[in-house]
Structures are given as C-alpha cells and as structure tokens.
Amino acid sequence: MFCDHVNFNLSRRDFFGRFAMGVGGLALMNLLHRGARGNPQGDAGAGYGAPRAPHFAPKDKRVIYLFMAGGPSQHDLFDYKPLLNKLNGQDLPESVRGRQRLTGMSANQARLPLAGAQFKFSQYGECRAWVSELMPYTARMVDDLCFIRSMHTEHINHDPAITFFQTGNQLPGRPAMGAWLSYGLGSANENLPAFVVLISKDRIDQPLYARLWGNGFLPSVHQGVQFRSGGDPVLFLRNPDGVSAVGRRKMLDRLAELNAGQFENLGDPEITSRVAQYEMAYRMQTSVPSVMDLSREPASTYELYGEEARQGGTFAANCLLARRLAERDVRFIQLYHPGWDQHGSLPKMIRRQCADVDRGCYALITDLKQRGLLEDTLVVWGGEFGRTAYSQGKLTATDYGRDHHPRCFTVWLAGAGIKPGYTLGATDDFGYNITENPVGVHDLQATMLHLLGLDHEKLTFKHQGRYFRLTDVEGNVVRSILS
Amino acid sequence: MDSLVTLLGRFHPLVVHLPIGILFLLAIVEVFTWFPRFPRIPDRVRTLILIVAAISAIAASAFGWLLARGGEYDAAILDRHRYLGIAATVLALGMLVFQRLRWQRTYTVLWVSALAVLSLAGHYGGSLTHGSDYLAFHFGNGAPTADLTKVTVFEGAVHPILEQRCFACHGASKSNGELRYDSWEALEKGGKNGPSFKAGNSAGSLMIQRAHLPLEAKEHMPPKGKPQLTENELSLLEWWIDSGASRDLKLANADMPTYITEMLVGKFPGLRPPVPERAASLSSAIELEKKLGVMIRPLAVDSPWFSANARQAGGSFGDAQLESLAPVALALTSLDLGETDVTDEGLKALAAMKNLRRLSLDRTRITDAGLQNLSGLKYLEYLNVHSTAVTDAGLVALKPLKQLRSLYVWQTKVTPAAVEGLSSQLVDHRRIRRLEDKIADLENEIRNQQFNANFGIRTGAAAKPSEKPHAGETVSATTASPPLQP
Fold first, then answer.
1. What's the mean per-residue pLDDT of chain A?
2. Which chain B residues have a beta carbon less than 8 Å from that of A54?
3. How far, CA to CA in Å, does B71 sit from each of A188, A347, B340, B385?
4. Residues 71 to 100 of A: which have CB under 8 A from any B CB?
5. Looking at domain A61-229+312-465, what is its CATH homologous superfamily?
6. Residue ranges per structural domain of chain B
7. Looking at this predicted complex, what is its ipTM?
8. Which of residues B186 and A299 earns the better pLDDT score?
C-alpha cells in the first residue's frame, strides 16, 4: 500500500546498528526514516534526525481549533442584521434565496418567515465589532480577534460539512488537518502525540466520528489521539492490573525485536510506525497523567476560566487543558463543542450553549496572552456552517429555530500572524448571501497551513497513484487577514 | 530659452557617440595599414573622416556643456568628464591638423592618446548617468568590503548624502547662503542662518527643518527641481544628528536601529552579522539533540537559523547544558528555556547568542542579575520572564535592546510604570508617525483608483429593502485592492 515509501535512505545494516543500541534506537530509526523522505520538499538535510521543517519561517507553532459542532447561528452572535428584526415574520424574498436548495427539514415549509435575533447587539473594542449579549466575554476581547463574516461551505448536512472542514473533502477517509500538520512538521514534543482531540461532554447531538481526527492514508503515527475527561484520559494506556512497569518495558523490548525481524522481511514502514507508537504510548504513560493533572493549577486559574473548569469534560476544562497542551508544544489541539444544531427553541438553547463556551474562549486567549503563547499559537473558533435567516418551524414572539445555511457564516481567528481587531467580508442585509470577500473552507485551510510555515500546494502525499493535498486542487491563502 | 538649452543639452548622449565611433574605427583601420598587404587610406578620405569627427566632437562638447548646467550630477566626476571630453575634442582637431601637415609620427601619437582620453571620458560619462558603482557592481560585493572599525558613520553614511544632494550649491563651486558642506569645519560652522545641525536634536536642526518644509516653500532644501533627499536619506541624517552627530564614531561601534542598518547594508555588508553555515550548524544540532534531549531545529527547510526548545527537558536542563549549546550559539534565533533549571550564572552563555530574536525564561530561577547578560542581544524582539523573580531593576538592562517588542512579565514584581519607562526608550514615535503618513498617502492613492457611480435614492416597490440609508444606493467598482481598513 505504501510501496513508494519502501526506498529507505538508510541501509539495513545502518538500521540494525541503531537497533543494537536499544529500543529507543528503533523509535529513532523510525523518526530518521520518516525524516529522510518525509520532508515536505523531498530532501534538505537528509540524515538529520527529523528534518521535517516548515517550507518557510512560520508565524505559529501550533493550532488550537475550537470547533463548534452543529453550526452556530451567526445571526444571533456576530453578524448583526437589524433588517431581520424590522422584517420579522415577513417572507424571505425569493430574489434573496435565489435558486438555493434547502434541506429536507425546511424545504416543505409553506413559508419561510424571517427571524430577527432576539438578542441585543452592541459594538465593542477599538475595532467596534458587533457582538450580541450572548457573548459578553468574547465581546471583551474583540480587539484580539479577526472575524471572517464571509465563510461559506459546499455542504448542507453535518457530517459532510464537518468532514470537509476537518479533512478538506466531504467523503470520509482523508487525513485530518492535524494529521497533515503532524506529517508536515513532525512532533515538537516526543512525549505527547502531535495531534490531540478534546470533546465536551453531555452536549452530543450530532455524532463526532473518530475518523474526523484520523490519519487517512498518512502513516498511522499521525492520527489524532482523543484525551477523555473521565476515567483514563487515553483508553488502554494504563498497564493492566498485575502488569508492572518493568514487565511492560521488557515486553515492549521483546516485541520490538520481533517487529524488527518482520521489518527485515517485509520492509513495510507501517511496522516501524507501529513500534514508534508503542514507544510513544510507553512515554505517554507518564506524560499524559502529568498534563491532565490540574491539581497544581493555582486558584487564579479558576478565577479566569471559572469554577466550571474544575469539572472534567466541560468546555472550560478543555480550554484549560488546551493551554496546558499548548505549553507542551502539542501541534494541533482540536476541541469539539457540540450542541449548536438549533433547529428549534433556538433562543433558549443558544443561551445555554454560549454560556458553555464564552468564558472558556476568553480565558484561553487571555491565558495564552499572558504567558506569551499567543505569539506563536493560532486559535480558530467556528462551526461547519451557519444558520438560516428565516425560522425553521413556527416563529413566535419568543421562539424560533434556524436551519442549516452553508452560504455564509462567521468564524474568528486569533494569534500570531493574524490581524487583530479586524473583520473580513460582509453579507447582505438579510445575512443570506456574501457581498464581499468570500472565504471558502479550502481558503481557510490554506491560510492556516501558511501561518504554520507550510505551502498548501507543496504539502502532498502520494497515495494510490496520485498526489493528495489537504486543500485538494483549491484554496488561496487569505492574505488580507494576515498581519 | 532655458528649455531650449535643456533640450539641446539632452542631445549630448546621442551626439557624443558619433566622434567616439568614428575615432575608434579610424584607429582600427590605421592599425591595419601597418600590415603591408592592407591598402593605405587615401589622404582625402582620412581628412574627410577627421573633419566629421572633429565637428561632431565639438558639437558633443557644446551640448555636454549645456547639459552640465542642469547641475544634477556628482560635481567631482562631472569635472573630470568635462575636461577629458574637451581634451578629446582638442586631440581630434590636432589629428586633423597634423594629418594635413603630414607629420606622421605626431599624428600617430595623437590618435593613440585620443583613444586613451576617449576611453576615460567615456567611463566618467557612464558613471554620471549610471552611477559610479555601475561597473564594479557585478564584481564582488559592489563596494570593496570596508573595515567597519576604521570607517566613521560620517564618512561612510552621512558625507555621501551631503556630497550627492548638497555639494552642488554648498561646496567648492558654489556656497549659497555662505554655507559649505564639503569640509567638516565648514559644516560645523554653518551658514549665514547659523549652524546646520544641533547634535542630539534633529528636530531643532536647520538642515532637517528645511528638508521637511513643503516642496513649494522657498526655504525647502534641496530646492524644488533639484534631486530631493529620499526618505531613507533623511531618516539617516536625522538618526545621525540625534545620536550625537559625531565625527569620529566608527560604523562598527554605532548603535543603529535595524532600519538604518538595512539602508547601509548594501554599501557595508559587514553591518549585518555573517550568516552561519547551515550544514555545520545542522551537524552540531544533531549531536546536541542526542546529547541533551532538546529539540534544535532549523526554522525552515533551507533556513540557516535554528530554534532550540529545552522546555521538555525541564529540570534536567541547567547551566552546564546551556553552555554546551555554544556550537550553535550564532545560529540560534529562538531559544526556549522556560521551566528549565538555568540560573543567573548560566545566562552568561546567552551573550554569545547574538542573533537571538525570541527568548523564553519563564518559570525559571533567574533574577534581575541574570538579565544583565541580555544587554548585547540587539536583535531580541520577544522576551518572556513570566513567573520569575525579575523586578523593575532588571528592566534597566533591557534598555539597549532597541528591537524588543514583546515583554512578558505576568506574575513578576515588574510595575507598569517601569514598563512605560522602558517602552518610551525603545519606541521611535517619530518613525511611527512617518510610516503612518506613508499609509495615509497609499490610502489616498488607492482611493484615486476607485470608481463610484451614484444612482441616488431608488424609488418604487422593488426598493423596499433599501429604505435603510446605506442599502444599495451606490455601486463601487474597485480596480485596485480594497482600501486598508483601520
């Protein structure tokens, strides 16, 4: 399957020379081997331990992606449209909708009544960005954020849309963005995975499959690892009862010898990949408990993140963990906060949802800032699509719902290389269509890679006879948001 | 009349090539006539050739004289060109005369010298139009590598500007306003309006004030119509005056902000620190990674610059380990020592890491004393000392770090007042203002590229949504990129 990778730059003798040094040597061999050909540009420093380096000097070393799964309503949060309040209850003009296809959920509605946000909007900060009353903490930090009001996607249902955002394609099976980064840049901390996933508990409405952080066709060392909030953070990492650490070490050493023999016979790089993962898991037996242990966080941490952060699995607790992982140089920290899919009872549900994330986001940015980490970290907030300007279901004085809307929605970014206090793009007065500077999903991905020093057109992997990219054959770096 | 003079003057570069071509061709033919099998040139043909050469040489000299009156040239080179050109004309006339007199020997001496003089005159002429480093540019580094410990800022940077922009009117040939800039004593003395500069105070210096006046103002210098000081040149003069207007300060000792270094580095490549060799750093880095267990990686695939991260090593990374980074010291631009076991004593090793731009020392045991070791890191942009024992006293050591832009002092005893004091030393507000002016100019330029069509307020049923004042009354077509938003 990976036949184009069997050409090693190291001789077999070299390999066993290293192997004789011990199992650590085998893991090292794996890194060397990957380094020798895994470098994004082909060679540059062959023989160097892991010369996986950026194409050009990066602005950011790591990403924290706050994914709002379900699709937050831009109308009720950031994209202020007073016209919707004015025309509340009137039909969406046919000319605005154009020939757009609607989901099965609202396509059968007799009418599509416009629904104005029931929340008060104000302008904040020096940049005078509009934020609704639902996000009081986010409102405080608008001068650090860059809003893109003109995001759009091709997909109208959750799974393809979220898969598109995470992997650059709507169909399952491609590597996730974090896996691409791990492949392109290598790990900056050998004791932790380069790609870690944290999911808020209790809010699942749409499923989040593990393939969203999968490695696809990339070598499996690059897959994301989910850290769970309760019980063991990483499943099957702990030694089983009755197995001592010494015993585990011996077992791994013997296993590595067997694997080395197998590798000699077959030359399949997945074998070295596997050994590297065993070794990583062994190191994670100490590194993961230390990163998950919040007992030494001072009281001031909880003053910032809120008492909620003491409960594992809340968004605030995951933000705190994200900061701790960032401090340990994990490259891609993917948070998922599901529960934004408000087809009905939106006013009530979104209030709860915002209360979940608002303070955590603010605390995370503030904390990264005071620790000097925001100067080499990129933070991204956003969902897989937006929501409609019209109400799905019945519009009443106090209630409405909103259907999926891929044509425009808002995301924000913060961190090094991003213009702070800036807004890109605009939508029409109905918040239905983009009027300027549209940004597609591949554009966002290209921009994120650019900030990490990677040229999205050069970061490729050959699989089944063709070269694949995260951005497929599209994507332009959105230079106007770069500082 | 003046415009006619200018017009005729501009014929000089055209006409001047006639005598050059004719005389060179004649010389070549004369050489060939030394061979017995080559026919001799009939005398009348030679005479005709020399007449045409002499007339065109006289015309070229005359046009050249007119062109020189424009005065936009380097005076010294212009003089050489002028007199050599006239000499060549005289030689051409001489050739004509002695050819008619059939003084064969003298004629030969004359044409050989005419060739030499023409070559030299031509070279200086080229230097006038293309700049004196035009020829040498593609050999080596342009200018000979100067010894920065010998050349002063005044000689190397300031004098050439004055020579190019001011000498024509304030020099040997003219001294308008009783002001001469062509010697240090005269420059220091000033002219009838007083001294040209006040050391340490560019805003109060007459030459700078004059340069900042609007171009139309009578007092603006250099006068309208003459080549103006570029923005870089003006910045350089201002910086020189503000830093004391010293005559003796050597380039090597000057404490230049990077934008000044960037202006001078073309002429003095030595001002930029030498780029360490990537291959050597790479092999040291691999050794050190193995030995110390810290990541030392190039910033990018082809970059000679490296970053080192000792944070993961934590307590096992101390002063001894920091010292062992010496082989890559000059290649490091980013060093993370956060949460390690380094101490004030160990930070002495940082003095060798002269190219550092980012340094993290957070959550270490360092104190104010340790920061003393940073004062030579003149490229440092980012310093993180959060959660350390650093106090206000330690910031004093950071004053020489002109490039410092981010300082992290969370959970230290540093006070906002001390940071305020430090930042007022580090931030060049005048330069910020100048850049803001530039942005305003560019924004104007962008606006001038845009097109607006105004339809007034639309009426009728279709206009319902546009009752809001800003909805859809104007159509803008932008031919350039959109205006910069604040």
1. 88
2. 299-301
3. 62, 77, 65, 58
4. 82-83, 93
5. Alkaline Phosphatase, subunit A (3.40.720.10)
6. 2-138, 153-271, 278-426, 430-478
7. 0.84
8. A299
